[in-house]
Design a protein that fits this description.
NDH-1 shuttles electrons from NADH, via FMN and iron-sulfur (Fe-S) centers, to quinones in the respiratory chain. It is an enzyme of class 7 (translocase). One of its GO terms (molecular function) is NADH dehydrogenase (quinone) (non-electrogenic) activity. This is NADH-quinone oxidoreductase. With 239 residues, the chain is α/β, with parallel strands linked by helices. Helices cover 27% and strands 20% of the residues. It has 6 helices and 7 strands, in the order ααααββαββββαβ. α2 runs antiparallel to α3.
């Protein structure tokens, strides 16, 4: 205000300041919506809502256990024709051996993978094998293989012989057992000359002496070797 205006008693009018459009507050979306709604709806929209009711979740349904299924009826196993045939063969030759020598000659008879197998007491070993070799109803003329196995936990060595009858087509296994200490079995070379080297091999590697063998000596190890490499307690580090 100038001095002249003060003297004349004039008052200065305040100058209006224009609002900055950038700083002007934008209307809220709900206010814009209310402007477009009819008056009664706008009033209803603007009125504060009452507290929403609390919805309690429904109680969980009780779990009902299903009754256990009844056990299915056991399925009857079908007989194995191969096993049945093997059992008949086992009993057939067992009856032959027992009928000739009596029950005391056999320690046991069993099927080993369908193979009829007879464990013959050592003192009857040669006699029973000779009978199997020459009896016309048997004629086990081909000794397929002969071998030995050590069973230290049972205290014996087992000699096994696989026999085949080329005339009748029979195939059986015969075994005998000897104590590990002073192991000794009657030789079968008088019956099957072809087991000569096999008995020597069992003697060489397991220490089983075959009585009446025509040439019982080591076949692989040196003659002065004092151990038996196929015995389970054998060790190259043993003093």
């Amino acid at each position: 205000m100038t001095e002249e205006n003060k003297v004349n008693g004039e008052t200065e009018q305040p100058t209006s300041v224009k609002a900055d459009p950038k700083k002007q507050e934008s209307p809220k979306p709900e206010d814009q919506l209310a402007e477009k709604l009819p008056p009664e709806q706008a009033a209803e929209k603007a009125a504060p809502k009452a507290d929403a009711p609390v919805v309690t979740p429904a109680a969980a349904k009780p779990v009902v256990e299903k009754p256990a299924k009844a056990d299915a009826p056991a399925v009857e196993e079908k007989p194995d024709p191969k096993k049945e045939e093997a059992e008949r063969t086992l009993e057939h030759f067992r009856a032959k051996i027992v009928g000739k020598f009596g029950e005391e000659v056999l320690e046991e008879s069993l099927l080993a993978k369908y193979q009829p197998t007879y464990v013959i007491k050592r003192e009857y070993w040669r006699n029973v094998v000779e009978y199997l070799r020459y009896d016309n109803s048997l004629l086990f003329d081909y000794p397929e293989v002969m071998a030995g196995t050590d069973y230290p936990d049972k205290g014996y060595i087992e000699v096994v012989l696989y026999l085949y009858s080329m005339k009748h087509g029979y195939f059986i296994t015969v075994k005998t057992r000897t104590p590990r200490e002073n192991a000794e079995v009657p030789s079968l070379t008088p019956i099957y000359n072809g087991v000569n080297w096999e008995e020597r091999e069992i003697y060489d590697l397991l220490g089983v002496k075959f009585t009446d063998h025509p040439d019982l000596r080591r076949i692989m190890m040196p003659e002065d070797y004092e151990d038996y490499p196929l015995r389970k307690d054998f060790s190259v580090w043993k003093e």
